[in-house]
């Protein structure tokens, strides 16, 4: 007998028919003799509808009250799914985060889980009940409801799997696994049988939206056996684990991200510590910076370029302009018509030719590279926004279609 | 400085505009220097929509899961209203029942409040925050959500007022007080300035739907100063209290109830204990019996008639037929085309002419009385369903319009 955590997203529970479909998957796992903990998101558009109601009343509502409001969506899902399980003869109990004892810090709307109590859930499992836990939510030390940020239900599921030392954590989605590329861009993208935590992390942070980044970090830290699979079709998904047998292609996939914008500080004085000053100012303003490039100096000035999320572009410009006297630069140049294409693969660094192969594919497609950034298992290039899909196809073909 | 509990029903918070209207009433009370605890029901049709979703999935869902589902409605209301108060500059915090510590027994869907913790609410009031509490809900000793039954938010409000020894408990509704009669039937019905707990109890149980019966019982037990008033118009409502200066009419109001049906057991054997047997069987089947009449025997048999709620009529018939051999009667006769008209007044019993005056009014209107039932402060008659509104008008006119 195993303990299995199963997570279903909002579209998987959006109506009665889908809820019964989910109940059948759960029932099958339960009837095979497993203990089952289920994590659910809010139904379909429920969260957006609640946000709409709140915005109509107060677009600047406190995050504490937003969390109180939004957490109702997941509670509705677990109660309804428990009723569906009861209907098909499977004993079940739904629990909100405060009932489980999912403890978090107090950062409303983006809380981190600190501890999960065992008693209630173990007690229910021991009575052979399926335990349905409202995802996305937690409770802080004052007894206030918190939420875990976008995609937080993935994090709830992995945290429960880690806490209860589950044998497997299954993330059910509307795709059937992790692909070498977005199949909407590259129709012959291949489904991966397995991927490492690190590759998944890089893919997730480079724009692949299947798994929430934080959930993968947590899975890696606690060695949680993850599987991403389809709630619609019954077939094997993609396993996420520590080590994966390498394929000859060396890379796990190609990702794109068109939500980035480039900022260049032109004509910076050559005084020491200026890079530190720039990025500490941006950090204080809660602006995340991704790719950073510092050009070789020309005379007594240099340029620093970096990318930020498009939504942060205005704020970043403002912060820099406000500190022009301190930072001493000539001007700020921005470009929000760019995109990022990345290749990710755990075996990349032991194979020097991988980055070159990517650049070759782009060269052959006549695509100009504006900036390059690499990590141990990733190579990213910034290119013109209009070239992104063509670049993805060219790079994918180079790695996966050539003999 | 006083502590005031204010309760607003579902129609009072059904949309953004109404929520801001409620927020203004609360803000005014708060700005006058009072501590304010607010109890809200679920918005408009939210509860019915949630019940609809549940029924689509499982019409026989466990009450435990129904409570888990339905309690989200009130949580949404308090969070949204807190946002509205924030918007107009009034510090506020919303709390679900588990956060307050509203403890109940474990009778899901019809729980009784046992205790209310003071700490959290006092702490928030001491910080000069308006405390918004989700009505209708509580939590049992296992940490499961319970609900208090129809109209349970009234009970939440009165229980909080009792527990915190509030100076006043205001129940805001879409009518502006308690009337001598339903103004839709008797256009010149008068609003009462005040009414006693007992009169209110009788009126509530005889069909006046302004206040939830249980909330009035609780208010009487703990001497809570109740006031029923309009959330739409700013004018005095009706006070509910221990003693009320009697008006010369002797009665507080006229109520009607058309949800009753009459059951007659015809030709019962004259053996002792048969009445006990009949009503203990019905009690075991959870069927509430109201008016009971036992006829004088004819020969060696007698008849017993009683009324039940229309929804229980079929069950009652079934229980009786199933036990025909034990009870030994000839046949069961039922009539669901009847209605009940009652007059209620604390001074009634000290004034022998009151009942007679009611019967006179009915006689003058040519209305035939089928059954009569009285309590210390009430006289009820059962009449033909089609005569009910005419009877109400006749009786009301007799007591309130004649000089």
Please give the CATH class of the domain at 3-174 in chain A.
Answer: Alpha Beta
Main sheet: strand order of chain A: 3-6-2-1-9-11-12-10
Rg from alpha-carbon coordinates of chain A: 23 Å
Taking pLDDT < 50 over at least 5 consecutive residues as the criterion, the unreliable ranges of chain A are none
Number of discrete helical segments of chain A:
13
State the CATH superfamily name of the domain at 3-174 in chain A.
Answer: Acetylglutamate kinase-like
Mean pLDDT score of chain A, rounded? 90
CATH topology of the domain at 3-174 in chain A: Carbamate kinase
Strand content of chain A: 25-35%
**Assembly of the depicted chains:** homodimer
Q: What coarse outline of chain A follows from CA principal-axis ratios?
A: globular
Helix/strand-derived category of chain A reads: alpha/beta
- Number of β-strand runs of chain A: 20
The largest interface is: A-B, 38 and 38 residues
The largest β sheet of chain A comes out as: 8 strands, mixed
Provide the CATH architecture of the domain at 3-174 in chain A: 3-Layer(aba) Sandwich
Protein model, in words:
- Two copies of one chain form a homodimer.
- Chain A has 403 residues and is of the alpha/beta class.
- Chain A has a domain at 3-174: Acetylglutamate kinase-like (Carbamate kinase), CATH 3.40.1160.10.
- The first copy, chain A, has 13 helices and 20 strands.
- In chain A, the strands form five sheets. The first copy, chain A, has an eight-stranded mixed sheet with strand order 3-6-2-1-9-11-12-10, with helices on both faces. The first copy, chain A, has a four-stranded antiparallel sheet with strand order 13-18-20-19, sandwiched between helices.
- In chain A, β19 and β20 (378-384) form a beta hairpin.
- In chain A, α6 runs parallel beside α8 (213-221) and α7 packs antiparallel against α8 (213-221).
- The longest helix of chain A has 25 residues, at 63-87.
- The mean pLDDT of chain A is 90.
- Chain A binds chain B through residues 16, 19-20, 50, 53-54, 56-58, 60-62, 64-66, 68-69, 71-72, 75-76, 78-80, 82-84, 86-87, 93-94, 96, 98-99, 120, 143-145, and chain B through 16, 19-20, 50, 53-54, 56-58, 60-62, 64-66, 68-69, 71-72, 75-76, 78-80, 82-84, 86-87, 93-94, 96, 98-99, 120, 143-145.
């Amino acid at each position: 007998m195993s303990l299995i955590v199963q997570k279903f997203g909002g579209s998987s529970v959006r109506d009665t028919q889908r809820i019964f479909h989910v109940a059948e998957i759960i029932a099958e796992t339960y009837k095979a003799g497993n203990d089952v903990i289920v994590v659910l998101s809010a139904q379909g558009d429920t969260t957006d509808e609640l946000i709409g109601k709140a915005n109509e009343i107060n677009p600047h509502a406190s995050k504490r009250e937003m969390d109180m409001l939004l957490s109702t969506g997941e509670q509705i899902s677990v109660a309804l799914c428990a009723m569906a399980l009861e209907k098909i003869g499977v004993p079940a109990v739904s629990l909100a985060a405060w009932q489980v004892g999912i403890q978090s810090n107090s950062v409303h709307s983006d809380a981190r889980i600190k501890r999960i109590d065992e008693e209630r859930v173990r007690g229910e499992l021991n009575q052979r009940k399926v335990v349905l836990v409202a995802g996305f939510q937690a409770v802080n030390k004052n007894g206030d409801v918190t939420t875990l940020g976008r995609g937080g239900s993935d994090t709830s599921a992995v945290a429960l799997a880690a806490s209860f030392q589950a044998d497997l954590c299954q993330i059910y989605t509307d795709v059937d696994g992790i692909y070498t590329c977005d199949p909407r861009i590259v129709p012959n993208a291949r489904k991966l049988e397995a991927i490492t935590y690190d590759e998944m992390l890089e893919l997730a942070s480079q724009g692949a939206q299947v798994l929430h980044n934080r959930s993968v970090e947590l899975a890696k830290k606690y060695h949680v056996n993850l599987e991403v699979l389809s709630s619609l079709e019954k077939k094997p998904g993609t396993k996420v684990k520590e080590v994966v047998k390498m394929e000859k292609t060396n890379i796990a996939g190609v990702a794109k991200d068109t939500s980035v914008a480039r900022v260049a500080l032109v004509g910076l004085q050559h005084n020491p510590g200026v890079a530190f000053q720039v990025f500490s100012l941006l950090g204080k303003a809660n602006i995340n910076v991704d790719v950073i490039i510092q050009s070789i100096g020309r005379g007594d000035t240099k340029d620093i370029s970096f990318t930020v999320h498009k939504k942060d572009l205005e704020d970043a410009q403002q912060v820099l302009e406000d500190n022009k006297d301190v930072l001493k630069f000539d001007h700020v140049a921005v470009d929000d018509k760019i995109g990022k294409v990345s290749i990710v693969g755990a075996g990349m660094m032991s194979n020097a030719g991988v980055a070159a192969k990517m650049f070759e594919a782009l060269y052959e497609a006549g695509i100009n590279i504006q900036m390059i950034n690499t990590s141990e298992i990733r190579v990213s290039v910034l290119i013109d926004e209009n070239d992104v899909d063509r670049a993805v196809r060219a790079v994918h073909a180079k790695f996966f279609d050539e003999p």
